[in-house]
């Protein structure tokens, strides 16, 4: 059903009669202080004005460990221009997130990019370091810069001039690990170039609208398949500029929030609408007192949701064998069913009984509902009839039941390993290796679940005000905002006080403001000038210290409203109230957490934001505190907590079992036996394998640990050879997370239990 509202008000301070009043609770104002700013440069010193949303990612090795990763401080990328000449393009600059110093030498003379739009940043070629994607009206190419500011690649554009410039978005549309670039004139593949062109659109986004595991592109009010075929077109009275994805109902398909800003003189053509995934209109607003409209933010503004976990994907280790075998990727649909053919081994697996990966032997089992599985015991070995394969799968369900497929009786040697589904996660994908007869290897992909995805508010800014709407299209509050220049200023969201409710960030001609999400009350105001286009403030945890920064751009070429120019980074002025649980990256104008991994890599199968955290342009990583692993081993003896220090070191004493564990040499938990091993750098660890069982010399203990690093290197401690009734489990650390605390159980001789807590 379509609902259409017309809101009229007298003066910008008035509210429509259709306002729905939110519950109000007084909260303390938010205190900010300047951390650093950038106001000028010795290179092109006249180019100091900024009027675009910056992007943030790691560009250099701050900690000197030889790698660029989440152990380093995130850096800021912006485009500066001279005077009022933003239409002529500007200089791409990179600033250190530590102090705002410039990172690049500009030995190449600098790279010119569109000064009105944000670049996009991500690791496009899989080398572990991000690239920066820019465009400009004066070039026939999309320029891809490396982390030092040099052009790494150029992609020929379908259009030139103004038809080729706009906000850039990045996505792996078809999940083939080759990244697509969504630009103003079309969709490009990083490796092959133009895929299809379309009419000019200022900002494009992507999402899987129809649930076929391939993302569509929404651009200028039109929905395109990844092939370029048109699915539908929203008929607006003017150009659709900006959009977001949200879930407002009980189905699994997204709704699309659209802004049609038109112009102040043509206010009747301006609208703010929510569309169903099939293009039909869910509701539409034409607010004559506040026409215009920039990018929207979607978050739990109006009430606290249950704790949530940011939607990030992680992978298990590879179980079994991959040598001389082809891999296939299997994505599970919403029913989470895994089909298995098995006999004396595992013959084939898949998400569809009619399209399995593997051989044709064995029999087809009843499907397994993976959403109800808590662990899988995977047995692999050398098969009696030849080759190395997966022999058996034991599925252990949350209700205590289990089912076995395949057999452990027909192998010369075998091993059984346990895969535990991480807490608050589910199995969303599977990679299977096979030579066409049996299954040789398996790897599982996890996605975190949320306890609630109810949207609590949609906010946008027009010419005269910031307006908050609920999911029914009813105006909740309106806060005056001075954007009579463009009517397209943007907004973003972040939970500054960690109360489960996001605040609204917005800037206008002379202010940056933080507004209470529930009421619109001003919680902080910072003097700051911009002549306004469609920029907005952002919050990013630059240092990864769980105390984020507010990043704001400024320009003062309009002398009537001039205050400052450049870029300003603020922090909490109250050390007892840090800004917690913020993203480490903001990689594009349409950032929404799920679109990019926290380390800058691109997910091959991006989790739908509307089914998980249900936010858009929010910096808040929900449920990021006290995320714990299961307890491995036994809760026997005294439990001690060991906080991981800034160097990330974990110390282990081991011999035939694990004797002691701790984060400092003077406070190890356990006994004095074994040998002190080389310290493990937990900042670089991606998985920890834990084995426990009945020790030959008495008791139940942790007998072995294996730490696997991001670079593939692994180190084993203890031994699996001196225990019976052993269980092996692996804890996979989600991307963007680090271990902040290790909980140890010990009776004083060996280590009995372990648990890891994440930031």
TrEMBL record:
The keyword Cell cycle does not apply. InterPro entries: EF_Hand_1_Ca_BS (IPR018247), Hemolysin_beta-prism_lec (IPR032496), Integrin_alpha_N (IPR028994), Jacalin-like_lectin_dom_sf (IPR036404). The lineage of its organism: Bacteria, Pseudomonadati, Pseudomonadota, Gammaproteobacteria, Vibrionales. Keywords: Signal. Residues 1-22 form the signal peptide. It comes from Vibrio aestuarianus. PROSITE patterns: EF_HAND_1 (PS00018). Residues 316-445, 629-757 form the Hemolysin beta-prism lectin domain. This is Beta-prism lectin domain-containing protein. The keyword Signal applies.
């Amino acid at each position: 059903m379509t609902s259409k509202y017309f809101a009229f008000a007298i003066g910008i301070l008035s509210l429509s009669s259709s306002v729905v009043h939110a519950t109000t609770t007084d909260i303390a104002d938010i205190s900010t202080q300047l951390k650093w700013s950038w106001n000028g440069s010795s290179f092109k010193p006249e180019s100091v004005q900024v009027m675009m949303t910056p992007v943030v990612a790691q560009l250099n090795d701050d900690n000197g460990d030889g790698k660029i990763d989440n152990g380093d401080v995130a850096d800021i990328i912006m485009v500066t221009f001279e005077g009022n000449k933003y239409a002529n393009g500007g200089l791409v600059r990179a600033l250190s997130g530590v102090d705002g110093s410039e990172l690049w030498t500009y030995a190449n003379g600098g790279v010119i990019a569109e000064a009105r739009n944000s670049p996009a940043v991500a690791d496009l070629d899989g080398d572990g370091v991000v690239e920066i994607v820019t465009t400009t009206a004066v070039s026939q190419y999309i320029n891809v810069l490396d982390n030092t500011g040099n052009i790494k690649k150029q992609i020929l554009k379908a259009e030139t001039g103004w038809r080729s410039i706009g906000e850039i978005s990045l996505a792996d549309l078809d999940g083939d690990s080759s990244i697509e670039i969504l630009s103003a004139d079309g969709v490009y593949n990083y490796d092959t170039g133009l895929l299809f062109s379309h009419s000019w659109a200022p900002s494009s986004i992507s999402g899987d609208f129809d649930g076929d595991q391939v993302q569509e592109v929404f651009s200028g009010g039109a929905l395109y398949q990844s092939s370029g075929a048109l699915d539908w077109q929203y008929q607006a009275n003017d150009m659709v500029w900006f959009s977001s994805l949200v879930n407002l109902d009980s189905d699994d398909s997204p709704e699309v929030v659209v802004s049609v800003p038109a112009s102040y003189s043509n206010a009747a053509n301006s609208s703010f609408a929510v569309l169903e995934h099939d293009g039909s209109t869910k509701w539409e607003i034409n607010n004559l007192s506040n026409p215009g409209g920039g990018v929207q933010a979607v978050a739990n503004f109006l009430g606290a949701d249950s704790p949530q976990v940011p939607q990030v994907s992680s992978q298990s280790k590879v179980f079994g064998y991959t040598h001389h075998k082809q891999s296939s990727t299997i994505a599970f649909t919403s029913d989470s069913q895994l089909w298995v053919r098995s006999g004396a081994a595992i013959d084939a697996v898949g998400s569809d009984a009619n399209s399995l990966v593997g051989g044709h032997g064995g029999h087809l089992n009843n499907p397994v509902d993976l959403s109800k599985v808590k662990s899988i015991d995977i047995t692999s070995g050398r098969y009696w009839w030849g080759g190395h394969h997966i022999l058996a799968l034991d599925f252990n369900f949350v209700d205590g039941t289990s089912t076995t497929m395949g057999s452990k009786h027909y192998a010369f040697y075998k091993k059984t390993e346990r895969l535990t589904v991480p807490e608050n996660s589910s199995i969303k994908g599977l990679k299977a290796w096979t030579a066409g007869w049996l299954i040789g290897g398996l790897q599982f992909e996890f996605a975190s679940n949320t306890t609630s995805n109810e949207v609590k508010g949609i906010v946008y800014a027009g010419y005269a005000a910031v307006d908050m709407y609920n999911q029914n299209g009813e105006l909740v509050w309106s806060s005056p905002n001075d954007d009579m220049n463009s009517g397209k200023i943007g907004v973003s969201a972040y939970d500054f006080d960690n109360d489960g409710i996001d605040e609204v960030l917005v800037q206008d001609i002379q202010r940056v403001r933080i507004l209470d999400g529930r009421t619109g009350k001003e919680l902080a105001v910072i003097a700051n000038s911009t002549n306004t286009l469609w920029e907005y403030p952002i919050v990013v945890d630059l240092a990864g210290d769980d105390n984020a920064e507010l990043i704001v751009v400024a320009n003062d070429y309009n002398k009537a409203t001039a205050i400052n120019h450049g870029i300003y980074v603020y922090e909490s002025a109250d050390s007892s109230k840090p800004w917690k649980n913020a993203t480490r990256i903001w990689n594009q104008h349409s950032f929404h957490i799920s679109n990019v991994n926290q380390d800058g890599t691109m997910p091959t199968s991006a989790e739908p934001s509307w089914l998980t955290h249900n936010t858009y342009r929010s910096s808040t990583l929900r449920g990021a505190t006290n995320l714990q692993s299961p307890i491995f081993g036994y809760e026997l003896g005294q439990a001690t907590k060991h906080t991981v220090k800034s160097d990330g070191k974990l110390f282990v004493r081991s011999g035939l079992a694990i004797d002691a564990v701790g984060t400092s040499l003077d406070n190890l938990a356990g006994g004095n036996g074994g040998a002190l091993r080389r310290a493990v750098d937990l900042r670089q660890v991606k998985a920890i394998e834990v084995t426990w069982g009945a020790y030959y010399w008495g008791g139940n203990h942790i007998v072995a640990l294996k730490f696997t690093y991001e670079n593939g290197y692994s180190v084993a401690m203890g031994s699996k050879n001196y225990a019976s009734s052993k269980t092996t489990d692996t804890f996979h650390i989600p991307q963007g997370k680090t271990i902040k605390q290790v909980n140890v159980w010990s009776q004083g001789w060996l280590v009995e239990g372990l648990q890891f807590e994440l930031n």
